[in-house]
């Protein structure tokens, strides 16, 4: 719960996270790549009355050395895409 004067610190999944892997199996998904936008999320937070003090983005390299990790990531990411398409 947020209270007046409180601080909320978050690290969100970035836009198009893991899409190289997902699109390798499912093909191009241009509409789904637009699902996360840090600037839009910051605007929504401001519209809700929150002060956005700092917003930083980074594109970090993902390295997977275990086929189980690839399967888990693919299954988890695909489920998110299916849920987003239903909205």
- Please state the structural category: mainly alpha
Helix content percent band: 40-55%
What composes the largest sheet? Answer: none
Rounded to an integer, what's the Rg over CA atoms?
Answer: 16 Å
Order of helices and strands: HHHH
| Distance between the first and last residues' Cα | 26 Å
Alpha plus pi helix count? 4
Strand count: 0
Shape: elongated
**Low-pLDDT residue spans:** none
Overall mean pLDDT: 79
Quaternary structure classification? single chain
Classify the beta-strand content into a percent band. under 5%
SSE blueprint:
Layout (H helix, E strand, L loop, with lengths): L18 H8 L3 H4 L4 H10 L19 H20 L1
What does this molecule look like?
- By secondary structure, this protein is mainly alpha-helical.
- 48% of the residues lie in helices and 0% in strands.
- The chain is built from four helices and no strands.
- The protein has helices at residues 19-26, 30-33, 38-47, 67-86.
- The mean pLDDT is 79.
């Amino acid at each position: 719960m947020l209270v007046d004067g409180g601080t909320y610190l978050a690290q969100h999944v970035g836009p198009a996270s893991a899409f190289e892997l997902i699109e390798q199996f499912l093909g191009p998904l241009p509409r789904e790549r637009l699902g996360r936008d840090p600037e839009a999320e910051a605007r929504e937070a401001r519209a809700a009355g929150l002060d956005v003090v700092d917003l930083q983005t980074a594109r970090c390299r993902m390295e997977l050395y275990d086929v189980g990790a690839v399967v888990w990531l693919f299954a988890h990411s695909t489920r998110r895409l299916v849920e987003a398409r239903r909205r």
